[in-house]
Design a protein that fits this description.
The complex is a heterodimer of chains A (378) and B (323). Chain A is built from 14 helices and 14 strands. With 378 residues, chain A is an alpha/beta fold. In chain A, the strands form 3 sheets. In chain A, strands 1, 2, 3, 4, 5, 7, 8, 9, 10 and 14 form a 10-stranded mixed sheet that branches. Chain A has a two-stranded parallel sheet with strand order 6-11. In chain A, helix 12 (332-346) packs antiparallel against helix 14 (364-375). The longest helix of chain A has 29 residues, at 2-30. Chain B has 323 residues and is mostly helical. Chain B has one domain (77-322): MetI-like fold (Orthogonal Bundle). Chain B contains 10 helices and 2 strands, in the order H-E-E-H-H-H-H-H-H-H-H-H. In chain B, strands 1-2 form a two-stranded antiparallel ribbon. In chain B, helix 2 packs antiparallel against helix 7. The two termini of chain B are 29 Å apart. Classes of the chains: A alpha/beta (378), B mainly alpha (323). Chains A and B meet through helix 1, helix 4, strand 8 and helix 9 of A and strand 1, helix 3, helix 4 and helix 9 of B.
Chain lengths: 378, 323
């Protein structure tokens, strides 16, 4: 009798502990980031906060909610924690649910601004819907440059150079072994093994897939005729869930190759291929964004990345995430808060921190236009 | 002799006590709420799914394409149906014999002190979150199953079901997810069958023993037939969980690219209804985009319903042994 009572008491304790662990892991997968650093102090403290932040827009007290792209998750988390440590009265939350979900919530007026991997799409009527929701034009403001790395794992090879055509052929399944003469030609002097190439793609809908396939379709439509899409339309490969899945799969498969955000490639210590001799660094990604054309009108700064840029030293596979905001908010406090946070995020002070999280800082020419655009929000 | 009739006491003129009315009423209300909720879910699924299916340019049930956002929308659920059914069947085929054996061991063979602790530990397995299973399956189990899969497809490869598939590496196949699902549904089936076996009438068991049956023969004749409806109900519950499992499948199973050739093999990749919907939920576009996924959800709903209805029929036929 006594033994089974102790047994069930222990069992109950272990079950409770595990259930609480479940709560912990559930909130981690939720990826919600709110009021992490010191945002709980009263408004009395905010005056000291704003005094030290005279350089940028200053601090605000209040809360902001945003939702959207997971590609800029790391960058926004960094921005929120830096901003909240400076401005203790501010509470900002960003939920990484995906670009589509973010824009839907923005149009439904449930969040103050949205993060998206692509600008509002006129084919889907998004600019019109956002304009109706804001009662003023919605602006796409580029904020974070997320370079896409082509990560590979080949035993004995740590430096690999690929041409855009080679990348398209590999991901289309036209080249199936690492020691193919075409790859060898781009890598003189490197001993390539005969391992089979294992392609990995994102099984979930992803802005990274969208931008990567846009790159492939633009630079080599002969080998990659499919239009760009958030879902993988290629005919070979294995789909893994989320960037973490692809990174993990590439890391554990000899001969694996996949496309993942730069930050994750660094975190997982994966080898990355250079494109046309240009390795992926903050500089080379920045050069590609610099050569982008602004296709938005007025204060809308939608960019058209030139994937075939001839700028020397530019790494062309980049995606830019936008913050989608109203040009005029109904609530003046909200407009002020959004301006304060976004101008901090666009400031050089913060942009320099982006390399730590695997993003590249905005080049100066674009940054100035971004700051001007943010200034115009009212 | 006249038969004696016994009726409930009539203390109020209306014939029912307030306590009876209240309890009976709440029980009826709860029952009706559940029925109405299920009907409303079915209505919601149909209302969203049918307009989308009407715009589908390929046969919804037999096509393997999945491109609902393309301009002529094309989407079909055949590949998802196959993967969902196969992974759940593998899970049930592995889990049920184990569960019945564990339940028998706990009720009839184990010493008293072991039975209690072991039962608690097995119930703890049900408390492990699915995402833990997903991460464990992906990092630990899948690589370890690669030699097992190679061996099986080497010896049994001539059967299409066990054919060798070269496009999926790392062991992230339907076979692996079937095993992980089996581990996830094991505690559910075990807990229920344990309860059922412990309710087997002692008089029948003792009578069997008195007639000279060995322990196994006693179990075979007195306990198992009694427990059959319970085993089937438990299996259906476990199967329901296996069919709807989302996170573990998303993390472990490699999905196939759009143009992949059809494969009967369980050593290939694929995706299940729940995992597909969860993967793409963030990027739903209103209209055909969302409707196609809800249509997939509807198929899963109907599948679970059909399986449960079939189980109910089997149980009703066996009702004779439930006394």
């Amino acid at each position: 009798m006594k033994i089974s009572r102790i047994g069930s008491a222990t069992g109950l304790a272990v079950v409770t502990a595990l259930a609480l662990t479940a709560c912990g892991s559930a909130s981690n997968t939720d990826a919600t980031n709110s009021a992490a650093g010191g945002g709980t102090s009263s408004s009395a403290d905010s005056s000291t906060g704003s005094g030290t932040a005279a350089a940028d827009r200053g601090c605000f007290t209040g809360s902001l909610s945003a939702e959207g792209s997971t590609a800029q998750q790391n960058a926004i988390t960094q921005a929120i924690s830096s901003y909240q440590s400076k401005c203790t009265g501010a509470k900002i939350s960003y939920n990484g649910t995906g670009s589509g979900a973010g824009i839907t919530k923005f149009i439904a007026k449930q969040v103050d601004f949205a993060g998206s991997d692509s600008a509002l799409n006129p084919d889907k009527g998004e600019p019109a819907k956002a304009k109706a929701a804001c009662n003023s034009t919605a602006l796409d403001i580029p904020m974070v440059t997320g370079p896409i790395a082509v990560a590979f794992n080949v035993k004995g090879v740590d430096k690999l150079n690929l041409t855009p055509q080679l990348i398209a052929k590999i991901f289309a399944g036209k080249i199936t072994a690492w020691n193919d003469p075409a790859i060898q030609a781009a890598n003189k002097g490197v001993q390539l093994p005969s391992t089979k190439i294992s392609v990995f793609f994102r099984s979930d809908s992803s802005g990274t897939t969208d931008n990567f396939t846009h790159y492939l379709n633009t630079v080599d439509p002969a080998d990659w005729p499919q239009a760009h899409d958030k879902s993988w339309k290629g005919s070979v490969g294995q789909g893994k869930a989320k960037t973490a899945g692809v990174a993990s799969a590439v890391k554990s498969t000899d001969g694996g190759i996949g496309y993942i955000e730069w930050g994750y490639a660094i975190q997982n210590k994966l080898d990355m291929a250079s494109v046309n001799g240009v390795a992926l660094t903050a500089d080379s990604a920045g050069k590609a964004v610099e050569s982008a054309k602004i296709v938005g009108t007025g204060n809308d700064l939608s960019l058209k990345i030139d994937y075939q840029t001839r700028t020397a030293g530019a790494y062309p596979i980049v995606l830019v995430t936008y913050e989608v905001v109203c040009s005029k908010y109904a609530d003046a406090t909200k407009a002020n808060n959004v301006k304060a946070f976004l101008s901090y995020m666009a400031s050089s002070e913060f942009q320099q921190q982006l390399t730590q999280v695997g993003a590249a800082p905005l080049p100066a020419s674009i940054q100035q236009k971004v700051l001007a655009s943010i200034d115009s929000i009212s | 002799m006249n038969s004696i009739e016994v009726t409930a006491p009539e203390s109020t003129k209306s014939g029912r006590r307030p306590g009876d009315l209240l309890f009976g009423g709440s029980a009826a209300a709860a029952g009706w709420t559940v029925i109405v909720a299920v009907v409303l879910i079915a209505v919601f699924l149909l209302a969203q799914a049918l307009p989308a299916i009407a715009q589908d340019h390929v046969n919804f049930l037999t096509s393997t394409d999945w491109a609902p956002n393309d301009k002529p929308a094309r989407f079909g659920i055949l590949q998802m149906l196959w993967t969902t059914v196969m992974s759940s069947v593998i899970a049930v085929v592995i889990a049920v014999p184990f569960s019945v054996a564990i339940a028998l061991f706990l009720t009839h063979y184990a010493p008293r002190w072991l039975a209690g602790t072991a039962a608690t530990l097995i119930d703890l397995l049900a408390a492990v979150p699915s995402i833990i299973f997903g991460v464990w399956g992906f990092t630990v189990l899948a690589p370890k199953l690669v030699p097992v899969q190679d061996a099986l497809s080497g010896t049994l490869g001539w059967i299409p079901l066990f054919g060798r598939v070269s496009s999926v590496s790392g062991g992230t196949t339907i076979f692996t997810i079937g095993i992980v699902l089996a581990i996830m549904i094991l505690p559910i089936i075990t807990a229920l069958t344990r309860e059922v076996f412990s309710q087997a009438p002692r008089s029948h068991q003792e009578a069997a023993l008195a007639l000279g049956a060995t322990k196994w023969e006693m179990i075979r004749t007195a306990v198992l037939p009694f427990g059959r409806p319970g085993i089937i109900s438990a299996t259906m519950l476990g199967l329901g969980r296996a069919l709807g499992e989302t996170i573990a499948v998303m993390f472990i199973l490699s999905s196939l690219p759009d143009g992949a050739p059809w494969s009967w093999s369980i050593f290939g990749g694929g995706t299940t209804f729940a995992a597909k919907i969860a993967s793409d939920v963030a990027e739903f576009t209103p209209g055909v985009g969302t409707g196609s996924y809800i249509a997939a959800g509807l198929v899963l709903f109907v599948l679970t319903f059909v399986v449960n209805a079939g189980a109910r029929i089997v149980i009703e036929r066996r009702k004779a042994f439930s006394e």
